[in-house]
Amino acid sequence: MRLRAARLIFAAGVAIWPAGSIAENWSIDDERLRVTSTGAVPVAPSFEAHERAEPAPPLAEPAPQAEPLVAQAPQDTPLQPLPQVDESAIRYFAERGDTRRLEAEIARLRALYPNWTPPADPLAVPENVDERLEEMWRLYAEGRLGEVRQAIARRQSEQADWQPPADLLDRLQLSEARERLFNASDLDQYQMVVRLGSENPSLLTCSEVDVLWRVAEAFAMTDRQPRARDAYRYILTSCDDVQERLATMQNASTVLPDDLVEELLTLERTGEDGQGEFASIRDARARDLLARAGEEPTLQVAGEALRRVERLAQDGDDASDPRLLGWYHLRRENGEEAERWFHLALEREPTGEAAEGLSLALIERDQFTEAEDTIYPYRAENDDRQAVYLAAAANLLGTEPRVALSSQVLARIVAEAVAVRDVTVARQLGWYARAYGQHETAGQWFATALGFDPDDEPSAYGLALTRLQLGDDTGVAELRRLWTGRSERIFAVGTPNAIDATEPAQVAAPAQSQPQQQTRQEESQPVASGPRASEQPARTAAPAPQRQTGCRTTVDPRSLSPATALQRGWCLMELNRPLEAAQAFDVALASNAEQARRDAAYGKSLAYLRAGLVDDAAVAAASAPMTPERGAELQSSILAERALGAFEKRRYTEALIALDQRAQIAAERNDLLVLRGYAYLNLGRIGDAERVFRAVAATGNREGLRGIAAVQESRGAN
Amino acid sequence: MKHFVCLFLVLSAALAGQSMAQNDRSLVTGTEWDRYSGRFVTAEGRVLDDANAGISHSEGQGYGLLLAEMADSQADFDRIWAFTRDELLLRDDGLAAWKWEADASPHVTDINNATDGDILIAYALARAGERWGDAQYTDAAADLAGSIAEHAVLRYQGRVLLMPAVDGFGVADRADGPVINPSYWVFEAFPVLERLAPDGPWQELARTGRDLIAHARFSDRRLPAEWLSVAGIPRPAQGFKAEFGYNALRIPLYMMRGGMTEDDVAMELGAAIRDADGNLVLVDLGSGEPTETLTDAGYRILAALGGCVANQTPLAPDLRDFEPTVYYPSTLHLLSLAFVREAAPECLQ
Q: Which one, out of A230, A253, A447, B113, has a CA that is 20 to 30 A from the CA of A326?
């Protein structure tokens, strides 16, 4: 937060006679903003007018004369003939080429003596006849302030009637205060800085802009931003040095909040070239804003800032501005624009960052081939880029209809999947091989994926299907055993209840994407062939930006076409928002296409099932004809839910009726067998209960053993 | 309690006498001051601690101001003051940053204060205001005294403590806090500071200081520790050597300069710090053994003061002449000479 850099920007090449408003100064009276002057010089009109626009600040009485020496100066009667003005300091500063101090001294003398005209040639100012005084001025001009004090005191002790010129004492005191103020500022003693500034109003002038900066900083650092703003505003309103104005604005933008910075930016002046003097600051601010917006999708960016950076990106030739724009658009699900800017960035400078952004944009736009190809050379640069590569590869493999990949691309995907042990890509390789009938290969990939993550149910499912395909009954049985109670669909493989075995071609997202995008309902959600699978794009969520989901915003489904509503229904199911999905499917039921109506009915009853509304699900299932498979699947699900619901209400007979009905169309799963056992137990049919529990226990299921224990306990109790 | 009230009266009376004495003569001669300032004071008014890598500190600036005032050299006082104010008196709370190094940027390398430095500066400014009739000195002294009372004094368990610094020594800062340094009690300053900042608990402070010095003495030599934990029963603070060391060796001088020439404790200390050869000893307070024997005239005169005050033993001739050696003993030498000129002329018989 230190402002060193800006402080170094001094007024190089300042005109020796500063024009205009040099006499007034800014007052930092803590409570009120006052315009004061060291003498009787009127306040510059522009400053005054500006301050009057403020709600509160009363325009000021003259500043209290802290230094009696100043009060003794003849400025109280400025129109009368003046005593000789001591111009010694002017000559010394001119001799030393110290334009800054020279200017400050002239400003100060003008404030003290409004009728005084600075000498045309400062070097021609006659030397003091008084050699000891001359020596004091020399020490002063060299900044040896302590020695000036020493010389004054020594002479006074030797010449009791000698008085140093008020001018010398005044300058000396100000220089000391300036020195002290800078020292306090360097040590972050902000209260002291403010105190010294307010005790020395003569320091708060355009010729001491760096003092004003320090005071402004001190205000800002002590939670008095509006006071800091006032100081910067004073400079921007009253001072003319171009570099100092720019540095002032730079300082202000590092310590003030946005609204105050914007306020100060309105004080910008336009140069002869028609350019605003703060263009560079506005550019930097627009870039900052865009950079932040590239990380926060919800951050609003004013159109002006966006246009500014777009112009910079187009007119310039570096890659960073296009990259900023790329991220900005990517985070706002604007893949097309993002792709355009990242392309430009990559053209100008081939960097991993641009490739990463471009690849993400391409994923966003379902252009997986290009996405994979773009990020491939940069995949090893960091974890993010690797994740993007894997996402692109997984999506590419999962694209439906399947895309035949070149052996080169396939080889590098394989190499990467193995190298980083990525379960998703390995599994997708399995599905990919399966799609081309290479079941042996598919089986190896599913097994490999399970080697990377033994708990990856989709890989186990793929493996089970593959083994079934290859007639490996033992292998299937092994998997069914392993996944009992964990995956209904694996347990069903090879049984009449088997779920249609089309792989959802859905790819889990890389680790850093948002959790809800990774969570798929593959276990509980029966996956159908037909429209649903094709309407669900096989996409991996891209790692960094939010994936376009298509149904996150709230929409009244009645405003949608049946086809869109159908799509939305499935999308909402994927987000596990079944009641909204049911409404969407309801709209889709109006479709003219029979297939779509069937899908809608199916979806609607699934949605109700998931929402626990079993009767509604049953009604929905009847609302359109559907394939016998789907009908049976729905019916069995509905009956299972009914059985559960009845059991929870302790209506055990009804539960058993539902279970019996279900058993006629589907094999009874272990969990339902257990339910049946407890229903018997609760009805006192202990023998039936024991028979059922023993059957369950024979499959190795613990619930069965628990049930047997419950039976024995019940017998003991009786 | 009665004892302490008397003590403060003694201090005040001593000071009144002192200001009369100042009118007659300088307590530090022109020659002495020229030698001292020629060696230890830079053109810009910085007092050099030449045994300490040439750094400067608020204590040194305070001593420099005090000696310049005693030497009646306003010219030098002014440059030392200008440096002190513009380079050290920078803290938001109005106290002085304690440490200044020429090669560092910013020059202040520790913004913490050292309260004895603050007291010495305020005290010297107050004397300067009186000597030269300049209200600017007095005003600055009053501001500083107010800051000391406000920020460097702690009321703790019924005692009023002079904290060595604003940061680092309090209850929250250290397990054994508060920790104090008895040699930071510049007794002669308290009556003066009381006139400048009447709300400060200066009399209580003086009492606490004398009380702690009297009762927190260690080893068979019965000497005070430099750093003292007063969290419970006073004992040497953790992390410091349990020693009567370079800081503490000033204590007898400060007590005598503070008017306690009849005080038993001051006299006992005066005797305890002196070895058979008239040198000053630093003592390990665990063993009671000397850790160092200091032979510089500036230290030897400290060892001689007690005998002189108690038994009118005149100072040896070599202690009456001032030759600068290094900053610290040279400073103490001049303060000792000023003391005998003012309050114990019999030492110079």
A: A253
**B10 interfacial to chain A (CB closer than 8 Å):** no
State the burial class of residue A453 (Cβ atoms within 10 Å of its Cβ: 0-12, 13-18, 19+): middle
Tokens of B195: 């006139």
Neighbours of A549 (CB within 10 A): 16
What backbone phi and psi angles, to 5 degrees, belong to B279? -85, 165
Pairs across A and B, CB distance < 8 A: 70
Residue ranges of alpha helices (H) inside A256-382 are 258-265, 279-293, 303-315, 320-330, 335-348, 352-364, 368-375
Q: Coil, strand or helix: which one is A335? A: helix
Is B92–A145 a contact, with Cβ atoms under 8 angstroms apart? no
Task: Kindly determine whether residue B86 and residue A157, on different chains, have CB atoms separated by under 8 Å.
Answer: no
Q: How far apart are CA A270 and CA A267, in angstroms?
A: 10
Q: Which residue of A has its CA nearest to B44?
A: A146
Q: Is residue A251 part of a domain?
A: yes
Contact criterion met (CB < 8 Å) for B90 and A189: yes
**A310 and A341 in contact (C-beta within 8 Å)?**
no
> In this structure, is residue A366 part of a structural domain?
no
Pick the CATH number of B2-348 from 1.10.12.10, 1.50.10.10, 3.10.180.10, 3.40.50.300: 1.50.10.10
- DSSP letter, residue A54: S
Which residue do the tokens 């089986």 mark?
Answer: A443
For residue A91, give its domain range.
4-126+165-265
Average pLDDT of chain A is: 78
A647-654: long-range contacts, CB 8 A cutoff, minimum separation 24: A647/A675, A647/A678, A647/A679, A650/A682, A652/A679, A652/A680, A652/A682, A652/A683, A653/A683
Q: Is residue B172 over pLDDT 90? A: yes
Counting the structural domains of chain A, the total is 3
Nearest to A150 among B78, B91, B92 (CB): B78
**Least confident residue range of A2-11, A679-688, B235-244:** A2-11
Nearest chain A alpha carbon to B76: A150
Cα distance from N-terminal residue to C-terminal residue, chain B? 37
pLDDT of residue A369: 93
CB B186 within 8 A of CB B119: yes
**Model confidence pLDDT, tens digit, residues A248-270:** 999 999 999 999 999 999 999 99
Do A175 and A250 have their domain in common?
yes
Of B45, B76, B106, the CB nearest to A186: B106
The domain segmentation of chain B, as residue ranges, is 2-348
Judge whether A276 lies within some domain: no
Q: Last residue of a domain, which of A265, A292, A320? A: A265
Do A560 and A705 reside in the same domain of the chain?
no
Q: What is the mean pLDDT of chain B?
A: 91
Task: Give pLDDT, residue A500.
Answer: 57
pLDDT (tens digit per residue) in B184-230: 999 999 999 999 999 999 999 999 999 999 999 999 999 999 999 99
Does the pLDDT of residue A58 top 50, yes or no? no
* Shortest distance, CA A227 to any CA of chain B (angstroms): 18
- A180/B89 Cβ within 8 A: yes
Whether residues A103 and A176 share a domain: the answer is yes
Same domain, A50 and A104: yes
Residue B207 touches chain A, beta carbons under 8 Å: no
Dihedral angle of Cα B217, B223, B228, B229, to the nearest 10 degrees: -30
How wide is the angle at C-alpha A32 spanned by C-alphas A28 and A33, nearest 5°?
Answer: 55
Read off the CATH number of the domain in which A566 is found: 1.25.40
Query: Residue A327 carries which side chain, given as an amino acid letter?
Result: W
